[in-house]
Design brief:
mainly beta, Tachylectin-2, Chain A, five-stranded antiparallel beta sheet, 21 strands, Glycosyl_Hydrlase_43_Enz, Family 43 glycosylhydrolase
Length: 322
């Protein structure tokens, strides 16, 4: 039996933004859960009404994805009001952690954390969001030395433009001019218990081969949303979505906090608007988990999780998957 690459892993519901990890000898997938509705879409992301998370697991790359049921719902998060968007998970010191963005009761996106004794949940949320957190798309990377980092941030509906001054500016929608350095994602080292930032989040620099910042007008390469970090042969690989040009791309660094030198495209545009992913090693092979809107024939808030094998070239660059 061959792995069912590029086919929907989950067909009983719409899922997106898959965060894949190897826990307890299995592949665990933490996606968002798209609600099935027919309201219009807009650039603010109001069509993405997700309100809960399900956890899925695969025994191996040839196995079906098993639904472990509802792991967390917005009603069980005291500080959150709506839009439980793309999550991530991590393990440390005998506990599993689920990190998630949601709008607070003032409509501002914050990042919360919940924990469980099982990778499948259910997860119990902390009563408040992580102090100093904002925007969307948390991705947590636990390094070989035990230090943990959260990467996050998304443009447009993700509100990153509204934080350029260091404070939330509700009416602000403008970003840098096209000939200026693009807005970067954020990174913060986490405390040992993974419940707080060790210091205020810092902006990540993404540069070209000459060391020049990627510009805001360079929509083929600039950061939009969906960060992910993985490590391979001593290099840190920071990958992300370009948003408007619908690609997954990446840069590399010797430092988990960057700067990252842009290297190329992991995944070309798929059916639908958004592209959000994770990269995981299992049983000596690397896999890319991503989503598209093929199951709904292109409706961008009715998405489905897929995966494929990922390959490295001899020089350490990633071979484009599609």
């Amino acid at each position: 039996m061959k792995p069912n690459f590029h086919q929907p892993l989950i067909t009983e519901m719409y899922t997106a933004d898959p965060s894949a990890h190897v826990f307890e000898g299995k592949i665990y997938i933490y996606p968002s859960h798209d609600l099935d509705h027919d309201e219009p879409s807009n650039d603010n992301g109001d069509q993405y009404k997700m309100e809960d998370y399900h956890v899925f697991s695969m025994d191996d790359a040839e196995s079906p994805a098993v639904d472990h049921g509802e792991a967390l719902h917005v009603r069980d998060v005291p500080w959150a009001s709506r839009q439980m968007w793309a999550p991530d998970a991590a393990y440390k010191d005998g506990r599993y952690f689920l990190f998630f963005p949601a709008r607070d009761h003032e409509g501002v996106f914050r990042i919360g954390v919940a924990s469980s004794e099982s990778p499948a949940g259910p997860f119990r949320a902390e009563p408040q969001p992580i102090p100093g957190s904002f925007s969307i798309d948390p991705a947590v990377f636990v390094d070989d030395d035990g230090r943990s980092y959260m990467y996050f941030g998304g443009l447009w509906g993700g509100q990153l433009e509204k934080w350029q001054s260091g404070e939330f500016e509700a009416e602000r929608t403008d970003g840098p001019a096209p000939d200026q350095p693009a807005l970067g994602p954020r990174v913060a080292e986490l405390t040992d218990d993974l419940l707080a930032f060790r210091e205020p989040a810092a902006e990540i620099s993404i540069v070209d081969e000459a060391g020049n910042p990627i510009l805001a007008g360079d929509e083929e390469r600039r950061y939009f949303e969906g960060p992910w970090m993985h490590k391979h042969n001593g290099w840190y690989y920071f990958s992300y979505s370009t948003g408007t040009t619908h690609k997954l791309v990446y840069g590399v660094s010797r430092n988990p906090q960057g700067p990252f030198t842009y290297k190329g495209v992991i995944l070309n545009p798929v059916i639908g608007w958004t592209t959000h992913h994770s990269i995981v090693e299992f049983d000596g092979k690397w896999y890319l988990f991503y989503h598209d809107s093929s199951m709904s024939e292109g409706v961008n808030h009715k998405r489905c999780v897929k995966f494929a094998e990922l390959h490295y070239n001899e020089d350490g660059t990633i071979r484009t998957v599609l």
